[in-house]
Amino acid sequence: MSGRLRRIAIDTAPLAYPAYRRLFVGQAVSFVGFQVTAVAVPVQVYDITRSSFWVGVLGLVGLVPLIVFGLWGGAVADAVDRRALLLVSATVTWAGGRAPLTRRR
């Protein structure tokens, strides 16, 4: 490989490790799914309502929690111990992901 091409090429050496390869492929699939959802939901809202206004409202409804919780989360992250925050947030994420899988009788 020439010197110029080597500088701009992507380093594929980490893909030699199976664990990293699985992580890379999983992240890629997740990203594609996210992008498909980001396109499909507004298209579906437009198909149902035939109104660009409601597609805009959908965007606004998605943006407001991001701004509010982003500012609040930043303030919390600055005020508490980072390790404790990571432990609590990971536990809440785990519990939230596990809750739908728990069968109640």
From TrEMBL:
Membrane topology reported for the UniProt record: Multi-pass membrane protein
Keyword match Acetylation: no
Keyword Cell membrane attached: yes
Subcellular location: Cell inner membrane
SUPFAM superfamilies linked: MFS general substrate transporter
Keywords: Cell membrane, Membrane, Transmembrane, Transmembrane helix, Transport
Transmembrane feature ranges: 24-46, 53-72
Pfam families, alphabetized: MFS_3 (PF05977)
Annotated GO CC locations: plasma membrane
Protein name: Probable multidrug resistance transporter, MFS superfamily
Species in which this protein is naturally found: uncultured Mycobacteriales bacterium
